[in-house]
C-alpha cells in the first residue's frame, strides 16, 4: 500500500493498470449517474426550448357567451371511458359524481365500470349513486364479474369491444378536471397522435419528496412531448386509439408505460398536455408506498428488457429519450455500487484518492440519518428519496429477474 508522502508519479508508475481499471470504472459509472440525473434533464429542456411552439389545441370555452359560441355535439369525437374497479367503496360515489360534472356531450360517451370480483359493496354504492339526479344522465354500463381476474385481463377484453375508437382509461381513485375530455379529444383530430397523457396532481398532502419527484417527472414529460413523444402515461387518466391497442401480457407491471410505448413503436406520437388534469384521491400508507415503489422498480427492469424496440434509431429523438431516461433507470443502482467499489479500490491504492470514498460515505451517512431521524431540510429530504429509490430499484430489479413478478397482478383490497 502506498503512503500519502509518495509522489503521484511514483504511484502512477507502480499502479498503472489498477489505476486505469478502477478509475475507468469510477468514471464510467459516475458519468452515467451524472448524465441520467442531471445531464439528460438539462439537455432535454434546452432542446425543448429550441423547438417551435408545440401548438396545443385551442381550449374550448367552458362557459360560452351564447349558444352560438358553443361547439355542436357532433363536433366532438365519441369516447369510450373504461374504469376497472376492485373494492373501491370508499371512492366510487365520488368518481361517478365527478364524471357527471364533466363538460362533454353525453351522446358522445360510453362509460364502462368493470367490477372485477369485488367483495365489498362497490356495486351497490354505484347503483345508488347513479340514481341521484346529478348522475341520471350518465351513459354508464356496470359490468359485474364474479371472479377477480386482474386489471390487465379486463382491459385486454374491454378495449377491443368498446363502441368507440377513442379509448379513455382512468383509475377509479382519480378525479378528472371538468374540461379534461374536451382538451384531450381535440388532440385526436391530428391523425399522427396515437395517445394523450394528462398531468397528475395530489389532493391530499403528499410528502415533499414525492411532490418534488412528480414535478421533476412532469417537466421532463412536457419536454419529451415537445421534441418527440412522451414516454409512458400515468394510470390516473390517459387516452389512446382503439385501433392501435395491442393486448398486454398478463404479467405486465407498469401497464400505463408499456401501452403508450407500444403505440410509439407503431410510429405514432404520444403527447403530454399539462392542461389536462387528473387528481389522485387515494393516499398510501407507508407500507403500501414501499410495496408500490418496489413494484414500480420491478416494472422498470421489465420494460427495459421488453421494450428494446424503442432503442431503434428510426425513432429518432424518442429512442435517445428512452435510453437516457427509462432504459438506464433500473441499472442506476449498479452504477452506484460500481462507484463505491471503484472508490474502495482507489483508496487502497493510495490515501491521496481516499476523499472520493469519504465523500460517498458522507452522503450515505446523511441518508441513513434521514431514514432513522426524519428531518425537514429540503436537500436532505430529496437526497433520501433519491437514494432510497435506487435501493428499492436494486431490490425490485433483482426480484423481477428472479421471477417474483411472473404472475398477473391483482390489486389488493384497501
Explain what you see.
49% of the residues lie in helices and 14% in strands. The protein has 414 residues and is of the alpha/beta class. Strands 3-2-1-4-7-6-8-5 form an 8-stranded mixed sheet, sandwiched between helices. Helix 12 crosses helix 13 (378-401). The radius of gyration is 25 Å and the shape is elongated. 32% of the residues are buried. The model is unreliable at 65-69 (pLDDT under 50).
Explain briefly what this protein structure is.
The protein has 414 residues and is of the alpha/beta class. 49% of the residues lie in helices and 14% in strands.
Task: Throw out a few tags for this protein.
414 residues, alpha/beta, 13 helices
* Rg estimate, integer Å: 25 Å
Choose one word for the global shape: elongated
Low-confidence stretches: 65-69
SS-based structural class?
A: alpha/beta
Q: What percentage of the residues does DSSP assign to strands (E)?
A: 5-15%
Task: Bin the helical content.
Answer: 40-55%
- N-C termini distance: 58 Å
What's the mean pLDDT score? 86
Q: Major beta sheet, specifics?
A: 8 strands, mixed
So how many helices?
13
* Count of β-strands: 8
Order of helices and strands: HHEHEHEHEEHEHEHEHHHHH
Strand order of the largest sheet: 3-2-1-4-7-6-8-5
SSE layout:
Layout: H1 8-14, H2 16-50, E1 79-85, H3 92-100, E2 109-116, H4 122-130, E3 140-145, H5 151-161, E4 166-170, E5 174-176, H6 180-187, E6 193-202, H7 208-227, E7 237-241, H8 255-265, E8 269-280, H9 286-306, H10 317-327, H11 332-349, H12 354-372, H13 378-401
Parallel strand pairs: 1-2, 1-4, 2-3, 6-8
Antiparallel strand pairs: 4-7, 5-8, 6-7
Helix pairs in contact: 2-7, 2-11, 3-4, 7-13, 9-13, 11-12, 12-13
Amino acid at each position: 500500500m502506498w503512503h500519502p508522502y509518495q509522489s503521484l508519479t511514483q504511484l502512477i508508475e507502480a499502479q498503472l493498470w489498477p489505476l486505469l481499471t478502477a478509475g475507468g470504472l469510477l468514471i464510467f459509472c459516475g458519468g452515467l449517474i451524472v448524465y441520467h440525473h442531471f445531464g439528460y434533464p438539462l439537455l432535454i429542456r434546452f432542446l425543448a426550448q429550441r423547438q417551435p411552439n408545440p401548438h396545443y389545441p385551442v381550449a374550448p370555452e367552458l362557459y360560452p357567451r351564447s349558444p352560438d359560441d358553443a361547439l355542436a355535439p357532433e363536433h366532438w369525437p365519441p369516447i369510450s371511458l373504461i374504469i376497472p374497479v376492485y373494492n373501491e367503496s370508499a371512492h366510487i360515489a365520488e368518481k361517478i359524481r365527478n364524471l357527471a360534472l364533466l363538460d362533454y356531450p353525453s351522446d358522445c360517451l360510453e362509460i364502462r365500470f368493470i367490477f372485477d370480483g369485488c367483495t365489498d359493496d362497490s356495486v351497490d354504492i354505484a347503483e345508488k349513486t347513479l340514481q341521484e339526479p346529478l348522475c341520471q344522465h350518465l351513459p354508464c354500463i356496470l359490468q359485474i364479474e364474479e371472479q377477480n381476474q386482474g386489471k390487465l385481463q379486463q382491459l385486454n377484453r374491454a378495449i377491443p369491444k368498446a363502441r368507440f375508437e377513442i379509448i379513455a382509461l382512468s383509475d377509479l381513485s382519480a378525479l378528472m378536471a371538468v374540461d379534461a375530455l374536451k382538451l384531450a379529444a381535440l388532440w385526436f383530430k391530428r391523425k399522427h397522435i396515437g395517445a394523450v397523457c394528462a398531468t397528475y396532481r395530489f389532493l391530499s398532502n403528499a410528502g415533499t419528496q414525492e411532490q418534488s419527484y412528480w414535478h421533476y417527472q412532469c417537466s421532463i414529460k412536457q419536454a419529451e412531448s415537445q421534441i418527440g413523444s412522451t414516454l409512458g402515461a400515468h394510470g390516473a387518466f390517459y387516452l389512446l386509439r382503439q385501433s392501435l391497442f395491442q393486448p398486454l401480457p398478463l404479467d405486465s407491471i407498469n401497464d400505463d408505460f408499456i401501452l403508450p410505448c407500444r403505440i410509439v413503436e407503431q410510429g405514432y406520437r404520444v403527447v403530454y398536455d399539462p392542461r389536462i388534469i387528473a387528481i389522485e384521491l387515494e393516499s398510501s400508507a407507508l407500507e403500501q408506498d414501499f410495496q408500490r415503489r418496489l413494484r414500480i422498480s420491478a416494472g422498470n427492469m421489465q420494460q427495459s428488457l421488453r421494450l428494446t424496440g424503442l432503442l431503434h434509431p428510426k425513432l429518432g429523438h424518442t429512442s435517445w429519450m428512452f435510453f437516457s431516461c427509462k432504459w438506464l433507470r433500473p441499472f442506476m443502482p449498479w452504477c452506484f455500487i460500481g462507484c463505491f467499489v471503484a472508490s474502495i479500490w482507489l483508496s487502497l491504492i493510495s490515501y491521496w484518492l481516499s476523499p472520493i470514498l469519504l465523500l460517498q460515505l458522507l452522503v450515505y451517512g446523511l441518508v441513513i440519518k434521514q431514514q432513522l431521524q426524519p428531518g425537514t431540510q429540503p436537500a436532505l429530504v430529496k437526497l433520501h428519496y433519491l437514494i432510497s429509490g435506487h435501493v428499492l430499484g436494486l431490490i425490485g430489479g433483482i426480484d423481477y429477474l428472479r421471477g417474483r413478478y411472473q404472475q398477473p397482478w391483482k390489486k389488493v383490497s384497501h
